[in-house]
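Hey, I'm writing a tutorial for new members on how sequence and structure tokens pair up, and I'd like a real worked example in the thread rather than a made-up one. If someone can provide the structure for the chain below, I'll link this post from the tutorial.
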Amino acid sequence: MTDHTPPKVELFDTSLRDGLQQPELEISVPDAVLLLERMAGFGVHYAEIGFAGANQFVADLTSAVTPVDTGAMKLALFGRTRGRGAKVEEWPDLQFIVRHKRRIPVAVVVVKSRLLDVERSLGVTPEENLLMAWETIEYLQANGLEVLIDLEHAMDANSGRCENGNPCSDDYTRRSLDHFRQLIDQCVRQNVSRIVVCDTNGGASPEEVTRVFEGLTCDYPSAHFAFHGHTDRGLGIANTRAAILAGAMHVQGTLIGTGERCGNVNLTTVVGAMQLRGEADFVSPEALTGLTSLAHSAYAAFGLEPPHGAPIVGPGAFGTWAGMHGSSERKNPGAYLWCNPSLVGANPTIGVNAQSGRANIMLLSESLGVQLSSTQAQALMDANQAMVEGGGYTASEVSFRLAAMRTLGTLRNWFTVKSWRVHDESDEVGGRYVQAHMVLTVGGSNVAVSRAEGAGPVDALTKAMRRELDKHYPVLAQMKLGTFTVAALDVRAHDSAAHVRVTVSFNADGHEPWVTAGVSSDLNEAALMAIVDGFHYWLLIKSGEENAPAGLRMKEFAS
């Protein structure tokens, strides 16, 4: 058996250019700068921040970001070759790139490499296309810029495909391939930094990619070839992997697979899938543990929720929901996982829902230090059927922990909401009056009545609770509510009586944020369930009883 050293491969992110071509996707300039800082800290080698001079966002980001923000990661601007009959020094894309070369030292130039696009889209001869590319590269290099060339439709040029993926004639395919090879020859002569083979419409196959890269790396051993993939056929990851295994030393994509149509290749999937199998070396093992955090930062920056089933970084990537699997997982941890989640900074997820059964409840309770027996697990399911079936405990381990402690009888009853109602009145001119009325018992015996007005039902209920509880538990003042999300459940089955799942995030200085959940056919009741759990969890934390074993005497506290 011989030792295998995986190839070192560069990562090029284009989330802020190609990624933003996804409809309705937006990011602010400050969030973009923070995301670039996170990429740099992770070990991304290049980041493209936009199409040169295309819009105000690119102009503002170009001015806002500095090499200090991004360290060793190189920043790039994207642009076109000079136009037909134009002078390179007067071409607007190139002017913008040269003007900002101190901040953004890399230029990515797109060159049409398929004869169909050269002749019909640009309306120029193959010879003029070669000259436009040559003069553009020469001009940028003379101005001290590192130049990467994106060969648009390169995979189609090599595979003989024309419009809609239809085969070109044999003669046209031969001429197109000749022109592609002339571009490669020219790029090699000009010492282009990276020659990027683009699967522009995502139509290639791994077999085609392997053939192209094996040929290029054999014929041009000194050149640095790269691959830029899309996911239109669902083969973006497979194609990128094929390119790397066949000699690509640089891959382009977007962190979380954003992009036009079906998206660019997802770099977090490529990195995790290949580095964890020893097929490529993108970043250090220490940096790799930040992969999940980086991906979630990207989702948040673009205002997206991580898809449950996103490979490697999704909330369900290392989850066990099926009861049979949960039972096996208890006996043989890791049996249903393809890798150790900690290597990418993730944790195994034990799902609790209608399909999971007692086994998952027992497994999750054990992992949280509140172990339930089979009988106790059944009792929890019976007492919290809506939460179990509605995925409330999958959405919030905090709410599950509290439910398990109630089942065990180890959770102190700091307060109970005995009854509540909300008066919500609107008038014809848009005015709204909302008041919550609540009866609570505090400390198991004191009965208190509280009322409060709010901007909406949830706000009013929260204020009514705080108005009374803050008197008894001053530590609640340290806690703040964050985001509030609602998901409709089983709408098709129940129509207007569908249940909703509410999740509420909480935060407090010096403590990790926490999330609680509630499930009910009534939105206000679901929200109240989540808020009550959020208050109870903070009181539990501040009491020092978070991990208290059964029977431990509960302490009094005031701050």
